[in-house]
Write a structure and sequence with these properties.
Layout: H1 7-10, E1 11-14, E2 17-20, H2 30-44, H3 68-77, H4 95-105, H5 112-117, H6 137-143, H7 145-157, H8 168-172, H9 174-177, H10 182-209, H11 215-233, H12 241-245
Antiparallel strand pairs: 1-2
Bound molecules: zinc ion.
Length: 251
């Protein structure tokens, strides 16, 4: 694929009209893709190329020059609704870990269902872990029985009552309704974020490496990864593995 090609590399005009010089990296496959090509041609068929040089142009700015300010103007005019509650970050785990839960809450993970909605061809939309339901964020992280097992294992380890969750938000607020010190609540929140990250990892291992989900292995991984992060990033340098394994976190 030639990403840097110019319009005149692909579109020329001769006596009979507009001529497309496609250079696809591979043949156009299947109905879905040929439909997309037809749609594309429909969109650009009425274009009349000018003889000037190709240049980038922003249609949201009167001068055609892209600026952050012009995008900001459009966004503020679009009447955005702010979310009910702001996502709570946790500096005891790395950003890349928190991002999974943050995106999941907004249903912005590239699940099969999300890809299909964006017209990206997927073979089927079924959850790769259970094979019984459509793969959405709510399913993968909350409703799938593999997720349910993971959350019950976490609850048992952290000495929490069995987790009753109907949506992602119920998991992200688990620490708020639990008893104990602020430190303990923050630790529970950190573990919850690591569990989101780990569930997505398990899902990817199943999709891309055909690995079979293993609940015990996953719990061990969550315990050890979360221990390393919490010990190094919190001011709990004295936290021992033994204390962590009992989830004894200062009361
Ligand atoms: Zn499932």
């Amino acid at each position: 694929m030639v990403k840097e090609c110019m319009v005149y590399d692909r579109v020329t005009v001769d006596n009979s009209g507009i001529v497309f010089n496609w250079a696809w990296a591979r043949p156009v496959l299947g109905l879905e893709e040929s439909n997309q090509v037809q749609q594309l041609i429909g969109l650009i068929d009425s274009l009349v190329p000018t003889s000037g040089k190709d240049r980038w142009c922003s249609k949201y700015d009167p001068n055609g020059i892209f600026s952050v300010a012009s995008i900001k103007r459009i966004l503020s005019a679009a009447n955005r609704i702010s979310p009910e509650r702001a996502f709570e970050w946790n500096n005891w785990v790395p950003k890349k870990v928190g991002i999974v839960a943050w995106r999941a809450e907004m249903e912005r993970m590239p699940t099969k269902n999300a890809l299909a909605i964006r017209n990206i061809p997927v073979l089927d939309q079924m959850c790769v872990l259970c094979g019984e339901y459509v793969e959405t964020c709510d399913h993968i992280f909350v409703l799938c029985h593999h997720a349910q097992t993971a959350w019950q294992n976490i609850a048992a380890w952290c000495k929490l009552p069995p987790v009753v969750a109907f949506g992602i938000n119920d998991l992200l607020t688990l620490h708020e309704v639990s008893s104990g010190s602020r430190k303990k609540k923050k630790a529970i929140h950190a573990v919850v974020l690591v569990t989101f990250w780990s569930i997505w990892k398990m899902r990817n291992d199943a999709v891309f490496r055909q690995r079979i989900p293993n609940a015990m292995k996953m719990l061990d991984e969550i315990k050890s990864m979360a221990y390393l992060w919490v010990k190094n990033r919190s001011k709990e340098a004295t936290l021992t593995w033994e204390e962590w394994s009992r989830f004894s976190f200062g009361g």
